[in-house]
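Re: the pair you flagged

First of the two:
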Amino acid sequence: MDDNARPHRAAIVDDFLESEGVARMEWPAYSPDLNPIENLWMSLVYRRSAPPATLRDLENAQQEEWRLLDSAVVDHLVTSMIALCTLCMKVPR
């Protein structure tokens, strides 16, 4: 899965994925809402009541939130991908 960005479509990337037998999904450009990592990141960011003041604070906060992350959140993001992709395929282009 990629968003068709130029770096993701470089010949070296295509050659590597093909050599490893990795099939690409057709994916709409600029679709972070369909990317489970983006949704996971947002679930970690929005759990804090106040934003971190420094880069070090951000790093510490993210490590703490990652440790506290309920595996059910990750499970939900993974299982919801089928429904999200199905809905996406039904939308006319």
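Second of the two:
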Amino acid sequence: MTGGATPVVELIAALTRNVENFPEPGVQFKDLTPLFADGPGLAAVTDALAGLASGADLVAGIDSRGFLLAGAVATRLGTGVLAVRKGGKLPPPVHAERYDLEYGSATLEIPADGIELSGRSVAIIDDVLATGGTMAAAARLLRRAGADVTAAAVVVELTALGGRQALAPLPVHSLSLA
């Protein structure tokens, strides 16, 4: 995103609920649920993200809000969608990537069988970019499975947390900055 406010930025701002001290004290949670529940808001965000992911063979959404967005974007682009799941949610065999969060650690997984990722161009979609740990883990996981991760796109980027640096040199696109 560059320049002044656009209609999609204004929709995001108007329909985002800011929750203080969640999930722990000192954290301000960006709840995009009202945005997703608003038909015109969801359509505008989907269209904007689809423009950023254009050219990808596959759209990967990160558990769980990224699933909603990635499915909608993949439908707009006429591609498939891949759910990048939290650990323990998929039957084996899986490709897994452990990573650190701002308040703990976690594992992401994708199926090791049934989906050929080698040589496929993949765009990663999620709702919020904070420290970048989850999205960087997803990118590593997809690359290790043979995918060519071409871009990452989010609805809101929390710029003060420096998540973009964790993903460099991967191009990161944000619809709104906070």
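The chain has one domain: 8-177.

-B.
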